[in-house]
Amino acid sequence: MNKLKELQKDQTKKEVILDATDQSIGRLSSKVAFLLQGKASADYEPRKLGNTIVTVINLKGVKVTGKKLTDKMYYRWTGYIGNNKQFSLKDRMQKDIIKVFTEMVRGMLPKNTLRDKRLKNLIVKL
């Protein structure tokens, strides 16, 4: 059996529940990314998956500081000429706040093959 798979099977899962009420969305997402990587545990190794399941509750109560709701823009290009779409953070949060939060956490995780596996350990509830 592969040694890496043996190391990942030995871990016991821990669950951390975070309340998002009145917390800054950026600071909360960086804390979640830190926990998903397993950096809070004593046996942290970058090549390990991490043994923490993070649950975020009350995400609707999260706060955004400054003028980010109106000034922060997200851009998407459809591939056709003249079809650049832009959305403000306020529009995206009204449409799907869970997707905005998971994309923020995804951007804070290391860009490797473990990123999608670590994101499966994230549970977000409104």
What does this structure look like?
- The chain has six helices and five strands, in the order H-E-H-E-H-E-E-H-H-H-E.
- The protein has 126 residues and is of the alpha/beta class.
- It has a domain at 11-63 and 96-124: Ribosomal Protein L13p, Chain: A (Alpha-Beta Complex).
- The strands form two sheets. The protein has a three-stranded parallel β-sheet, covered by helices on one side. The protein has a two-stranded antiparallel sheet with strand order 3-4.
- Helix 2 (25-37) packs across helix 5 (97-108) and helix 4 (89-95) packs across helix 5.
- The mean pLDDT is 91.
Outline of this structure?
Helices cover 38% and strands 20% of the residues. The chain has helices at 3-9, 25-37, 68-71, 89-95, 97-108, 115-119; strands spanning 14-19, 52-57, 73-77, 84-88, 122-124.
- Please provide the count of β strands: 5
Tally of separate helices: 6
CATH class term of the domain at 11-63 and 96-124: Alpha Beta
- Give the overall average pLDDT: 91
How are helices and strands ordered from N to C?
HEHEHEEHHHE
Low-confidence stretches: none
Strand content range:
15-25%
Question: What is the CATH topology of the domain at 11-63 and 96-124?
Answer: Ribosomal Protein L13p, Chain: A
